[in-house]
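debug: dumping io for the single-chain case to check the tokenizer round-trip. Nothing else runs in this session.
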Amino acid sequence: MLLIGSPPLDVRDLQVVLAIASAGSTAAASPTLNLTQSAVSRALSLAEERLGAPIFERTGRGLTPTPAGQRLIAGARPVLAQLAELVESARALAVAPTRLRIVCECYTAYRWLPSVLRRLHESYPKVDVTLAIEHTHDPVAALVAGEVDMALLTMARVRGRLRELPLFSDEVVFVVAASHPLAAQRSITARDLCEHLLISSHTPEAETRWFMTRLFGRRRPKLDFLRLPLTEAIVDAARAGMGIAVLSEWIASGYLDRTDLVAKRLSSAPLRRPWRLAFRDEVAGAAQRLASALERAAPHMYKGDARTRRTGDAALIRY
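debug: decoded output
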């Protein structure tokens, strides 16, 4: 009988590597892993020692995957998903159908999430996931209270005995009228954002802080915002030449089939917003399966597989 040898890396090593790849640094990955930054750094060093090769390069912008790291990251999530599916398929033979409720922190995800859940139910009929939109205003509180089982999060921090999985990122893009002076530029600069009116929805305070920090660091210039409650109103204001609409690529892509609007990326680097799946411990298996389905299905304006989305190598689709 052929016995398969034990690989040098285990499941926890892969989870650490994926969390760091998604977050960009050990400090940013520590809340996801429920570890201190020093513990994450030690775990990464141990994984690199076991692998026998560096997984990340330390640069001024954080941690960037090496070629070996890119290969490991590309294969890690399918391996974890297959393991979770193996365990759940074995359990499914003896358990009743699982009914779960999921909520999103940001309304932009509701644009495509229902179709993902439908396909998931077709593939795994014993896992039935429904949306709990009424808890969008405070998804973590609903998760802690047991009113939902999983939450798709961007900026909110989990508390209590909850677990998380890093997912993908969506890019924040800047939409202007084709007649706007910035339409001729290749990309948008931080200075452009200081000089023009920004049109957006009423975003949570945590997301506003993230936006300002990513753009300006500790320097916090005063920006002029026009806050509108409806996506159509935001887009129409940009179409009228009033300013720059700040939108998720998921939303913006639906309005770029006409020639009167153009989308621009941030010149310094793509402005990507990380997403995580938070869940209660008792639904860990179903959460792993859902995380795998979400990463494969999330729509993007940019070409590239999950690996290039995480490492920033995606190519722009022309529109």
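debug: round-trip ok. Confidence is low (pLDDT under 50) at residues 304-319.
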